[in-house]
Description:
Blueprint: H1 28-41, H2 56-86, H3 91-110, H4 114-120, H5 123-131, H6 139-147, H7 155-163, H8 165-168, H9 170-182, E1 187-190, E2 193-196, H10 202-206, H11 211-227, H12 229-249, H13 255-260, H14 267-279, H15 281-295, E3 300-301, H16 319-329, H17 335-346, E4 350-351, E5 363-365, E6 373-375, H18 383-403, H19 415-435, H20 440-476, H21 483-498, E7 502-503, H22 525-543, H23 546-557, H24 564-571, H25 579-598
Parallel strand pairs: 3-7, 4-6
Antiparallel strand pairs: 1-2, 5-6
Helix pairs in contact: 1-2, 1-3, 2-3, 3-7, 9-12, 12-20, 14-20, 15-25, 16-17, 16-18, 16-19, 18-19, 19-22, 20-21, 20-22, 20-25, 22-25, 23-24
Amino acid sequence: MxxxxxxxxxxxxxxxxxWNLSKLYPSHEAWQKDLEIFKSAIPxxxxxxxxxxxxADTFLNCLEFLRTNGLLSERIGYYAFLRYAEDxxxxxxxxxxxxxxQAETEFSAAISYIDPEIxxxxxxxxxxxxxxxxxxxxxxxxxxxxxxxxxxxxxxxERLLALQGEAASAPQKAFxxxxxxxMTFGTIDTPDGEKPLSQGSFSSFMINPDRAxxxxxxxxxxxxxxxxxxxxxxLYAGSVQYDVYQARVRNFSSAxxxxxxxxxxxxxxxxxxxxxxxxxxxxxxxxxxxxxQALGIDTLRHYDVYVPLVKNVTTNYSxxxxxxxxxxxxxxxxxxxxxTLEEGLLxxxxxxxxxxxxxxxxxxxxxxxxxxxxxxxxxxxxxxxxFTLAHEGGHSMHSWYSxxxxxxxxxxxxxxxxxxxxxxxxxxxxxxxxxxxxSKEMRxxxxxxxxxxxxxxxxxxxxxxxxxxxxxxxxxSGIPLTVDSLRAAYRELLEAYFGPEMVLEEVSDLEGxxxxxxxxxxxxxxxxxxxxxxxxLSKKVMEGDESDRDTYLNFLKSGGSRxxxxxxxxxxxxxxxxxxxxxxxxIFTALLEQYKKLL
Length: 599
């Protein structure tokens, strides 16, 4: 087969298209050296056992031990993770990833006594510690630890749980190895020749105007998941079972409550999101009715929901052109923000294109040392990838500001906040592209893209969140998680969200088996709450003055110094209320009316 028709190997990728991890480690040997240093520190954790209430000096030494080795753990961990993400098929990457996970599991076990011992320190002693100026920079971390007191077990029990860390990740690792490396999806015959079908290229086929081609790619893609459905269902069931186990041993009433507790997010926020989105079903179903009419088809199928409705409008942006769009769109955030981001996107932050063995999708991986790296699988003919670049750039700039304004022990912001910074950027890209649209058709195309993005980020991620809640509730109530029960639960949601216009395929509910985020339970709802918040905040910055911009930048700088609901309130939006989600649905409805007129 012609080389152009194949997905390149990692060794074939141009160096200029790959991230530069030298700020983390200049070589594998340097990483190995730090791994050994980290491993040698593990036995030293015992030095503080039973002594944390003795004196402020001993307590401070323990905190500094945690900081030093936590920083080292993050550094060696990110390097191993990023190498594994760029090519999971490389045995040396697999080895590094395995070695660091093993070491981190041992470290977690060695320090597992610390949280229970901190919890056991008498209140008057802890109060005195918190007044010590040397301990002041650890106060936020300590207050968060103390909050977990009802859910922290004895030192020996915590050690047993910590030792399970590596084994607990087995379902996710097996899922990634199966779907990103071992599974092959074949090729699709297109008017431009035979093209490889993969996790990365699937979205390109789904926006192709040729309906027969979309249908073939869809069925061929999900046909591979059909072949492995029992294995993947078992992996996901194992992940859910472990979530429930962890929640129960830590005295939480449910897995969802346990997942929301660290961010101090009330379960009402989750329920309000689902309720507000359900209230928006009439508008969503109206959109699908419009899509069916605009496509001129008798039945709307699952492979019809991503193709642009505006005819004869195509986009093709090179990577550098995409960067230019993003930077110009974000100009209202000021020169420090845009110049830093531009240098990173064109420099060493981004791993740009797909290669064999590379993780699908995109992510930003910010750490305290090194650059806030971005993994992309950029496609020039997929407009969504321009938005994705802005999205991940938002995460990376959030990390960049947080690192420069917080100590290590509380620089790491929550995912709840992270999804605001990322989708915020997407609003500015949409505005920029609309302002520079050179035709009515292009304007309609971009508004259609905005609608699709709100569907993908608010409606669809809420559907995913509802599915996660259902599957965990099923197991918690004694209902076995099987291929059939998982597919039935997912199909019920597909029918509710897509409404009466959609005719589902027999394999459509297999989509529930291919979502990698499900292996990090109760995460995806934050996409929906994040976009709802960012719609409100971006409007304030777009329509406001420098003080509104500075308020937003201060939110980015706050890092993990506050719980997310409080942090966002200070930024100007109250996510404890359902109103931001309802407002987002109203924005969707207004955009839909504009879209109908343009079409």
